[in-house]
Amino acid sequence: MKILKTIAFLALATMSSIPTMGQDLLARQAPIDRKMKAVDSVALQRLIDTETYYDAPSADLYDDWDNMHAHSRVAEMPDSFRISLRNFCMPTDSRVLTSNFGARWGRQHKGLDIKVYIGDTIRAAFDGKVRVVRYEGRGYGKYVVIRHDNGLETYYAHMSKQLVVEDQIVRAGDPIGLGGNTGRSTGSHLHFETRLCGVALNPALMFDFRNQDVVDDYYTFRKSTYQKESQAATRLRGVSGVGFSGDNDEVELAVAAPAASYHQESRFHKVKKGETLYSIAKHRGTTVQAIMKLNHLKKNTKLRAGQILKFN
Predict the structure, then answer these.
(1) Which residue, 165, 198, 203, 205, is most buried by CB atoms nearer than 10 A?
(2) Range 225-229, long-range pairs (CB < 8 A, 24+ positions)
(3) Hey, is 242 helix, strand or coil?
(4) Nearest CA to 291 among 275, 222, 19, 30?
(5) Whole-model pTM?
(6) How far apart, in whole angstroms, are the C-alpha atoms of residue 244 and residue 65?
């Protein structure tokens, strides 16, 4: 009887220990499983991103992938092409435009200039893949070019710092750089371009910076009507009162958005050669301190001809 009791006890103890051992094994495996799950998720996401990119409309427009040249070389523009503007992000939250797309000072200005300050975050407008990250001292300064799934390529120029690398997959809204004043620039701003097959299109056809929105879910480019549509977009969403001939020293913004960061009476002064903060303040009926505060300037800041300053 004593032996039977001993055997029964040992059997019961063994059976009760099995779940505990199983739990210990699961506990030891759990960190490994979580790690493997994370690795699988990253690999899977990369695969999805790659397949999405190569299945996107952009794959039908461009013959190659070039990290050396800013402007894509494509044999011919399509007669028409539908561009999805959904799932976008405004590249900056600034609502102030300082220069339009089109003829300016005897040459073509192939983008919009948006007032930003050094260090402001610049974001990717759509999902896509970074094609060019370079510096051009006599032009774009520090710039980034992104080819998007919708067929567009966007350019972000004059930045103080680039935050992405070539061939990197980005999502709409990802930080890609910081506002700056590098290259051929007269004051900190973002030069923003939208190109299709290497040809610059007026960003105002698609982006409304004053209202921080795109103009519609889609934009259809048509060779036959593009010029008229571009001119109309500039009248509706561009800068009013800018003298592109170079002799107008004041820029007045008719801001449409009620929540705009600059109210309707805001005025801007375009710096002429030889002008100083003191002479501008005296001419505009304000103070040096006020201009410095409005434009985040320091006393030793050197002004350059063509620079845009807010004075009230």
Answers:
(1) 203
(2) 226/201, 229/205
(3) coil
(4) 275
(5) 0.64
(6) 35
* Maximum Cα–Cα distance across the chain: 115
pLDDT at 16 over 50: yes
Contacts of 220 (CB under 8 A, 6+ apart): 80, 81, 82, 83
By three-state DSSP, how is residue 69 classified? coil
pLDDT given at position 242: 47
The answer to whether residues 246 and 214 touch, using CB atoms and an 8 Å cutoff, is no
User: Taking a C-beta distance cutoff of 8 angstroms, is the pair 188, 117 a contact?
Assistant: yes
The residue behind tokens 């220069």 is 99
What the block records as the tokens of 119 is 């260090």
Q: List Cα–Cα distances, 249 to 112, 294, 309, in angstroms.
A: 19, 18, 10
pLDDT number for residue 298: 77
Residue 142 structure tokens: 């520090």
* The token pair that represents 7 in the structure block: 């055997």
Instruction: From residue 265, give the alpha-carbon distance in Å to each of 131, 251, 258.
Output: 40, 11, 13
